[in-house]
Amino acid sequence: MSSESRHVLLAVCGGIAAYKACEVLRGLQKAGCEVRVTMTADAERFVGTATFEGLTRHAVADDLYDYPETAIPHIDLAEWADLVVVVPATANVMAKMAAGLADDCLSTTLLAAACPVLVAPGMNVHMWQNAATQANLKTLRARGVGFVLPVEGRLACGDVGAGKLADVEDIVSAALAALDAPRAEKDLQLTRILVTAGPTHEAIDPVRYIANASTGKMGYAIAAAAARRGAQVTLVSGPTALQVPEGVVRMDVTSAQEMYEAAMAAFPGCDAAICTAAVADYTPAAPADHKLKKAHEHLNSIELVETRDILASLCSQKGERVVVGFAAETNDLLANAQAKLVRKGADLIVANDVSRRDSTFGADTSRIALVSPVGVTQRETRPLPEVADDVLDATRDLLRGRA
């Protein structure tokens, strides 16, 4: 499917976040998608049809009997679309989808759609946590509907909690991944991959900790790409603000010791481990059990002890399995990566120079070098999803070599 032929139907529901559907639309258009829109009557109370018609140059489908482009909009649009994105999905529309109700143009089109459907809910925290909504979520997921789950934050009503519409960038990324999924080669089918990602937080006291600048973006991109390519993925994640990728099992940890225990427990059931996490090398020897008060508990120094080496430990137990490590360096990139490859006993080290703005922590791109016992392959700066596929291609080839 070429980018020019990607057809996305945006189904806009009646929530305060309806205005963000305009940003989702623009993001999809920038990625080369052709977008059309269907709306509920409630959605039009938040954003008028003229806005979407101006952006798409097509009429908005909001009436089954008065749509200028076809006499049967719910059928023709459902057949036209390669993907339907429901944003913001209200509790009401999720309930309709779960029950198979079709009483307006949007819900009738959803019922007629045979293409993938991606749902981005946005609603009050109590509505989201209601047992009925959670049951509908479970039902729709079991039917293969994709979700970009809401995040925690301050809601329009003033409540704070889960229910806030996910970031526009995350919704667009998930939509593009869903468009790619049908054509992606399932070359990692039946492969079980462990991915570690993010930083670790090493407690000084209950409110202070030692950490680093890792965001987890690279590890999450690898986990998402591996799942898309058919792998069974276990993601051991330090503290991040990222959403778990579709189809990935995430284990949340905080400290280096917790990450070590989770990774070592998961590894026996895996074929490969890809260690992207920026694990703290040191941790406070005796963290306080209460908040230290500056007035009378001066913190002039912190005694540190080394943490357990996750990468080396996995390598020592790998047998015929593949272990890939990462080396984030600011100088002597290749020399340090080659030394790490030998020292840890890894099959591959992915080296990146984090002093570069296009390859540092939190960037949406990376410039990596693949360092193996047989040589070095330098890649140019590319978006993280493409870098993730590079790493997975190398991992797949190593696995095939073992087989």
Automatic annotation (TrEMBL):
The gene is coaBC. Residues 7-178 form the Flavoprotein domain. In the N-terminal section; belongs to the HFCD (homo-oligomeric flavin containing Cys decarboxylase) superfamily. In the C-terminal section; belongs to the PPC synthetase family. It comes from the Bacteria. The active site is at C157 (proton donor). InterPro entries: CoaB-like_sf (IPR035929), CoaBC (IPR005252), DNA/pantothenate-metab_flavo_C (IPR007085), Flavin_trans-like (IPR036551), Flavoprotein (IPR003382). It catalyses: N-[(R)-4-phosphopantothenoyl]-L-cysteine + H(+) = (R)-4'-phosphopantetheine + CO2; (R)-4'-phosphopantothenate + L-cysteine + CTP = N-[(R)-4-phosphopantothenoyl]-L-cysteine + CMP + diphosphate + H(+). Pfam families: DFP, Flavoprotein. Its cofactor is FMN; Mg(2+). Binds 1 FMN per subunit. CTP binds at D281, K291, F326, K340, K344. Signal peptide: none annotated. Its EC number is 4.1.1.36, 6.3.2.5. Catalyzes two steps in the biosynthesis of coenzyme A. In the first step cysteine is conjugated to 4'-phosphopantothenate to form 4-phosphopantothenoylcysteine, in the latter compound is decarboxylated to form 4'-phosphopantotheine. This is Coenzyme A biosynthesis bifunctional protein CoaBC. Residues 193-403 are annotated as: Phosphopantothenate--cysteine ligase. Pathway: Cofactor biosynthesis; coenzyme A biosynthesis; CoA from (R)-pantothenate: step 2/5; Cofactor biosynthesis; coenzyme A biosynthesis; CoA from (R)-pantothenate: step 3/5. GO terms for molecular function: phosphopantothenate--cysteine ligase activity; phosphopantothenoylcysteine decarboxylase activity. Residues 1-192 are annotated as: Phosphopantothenoylcysteine decarboxylase. NCBIfam families: coaBC_dfp. Residues 190-394 form the DNA/pantothenate metabolism flavoprotein C-terminal domain. Keywords: Decarboxylase, Flavoprotein, FMN, Ligase, Lyase, Magnesium, Metal-binding, Multifunctional enzyme.
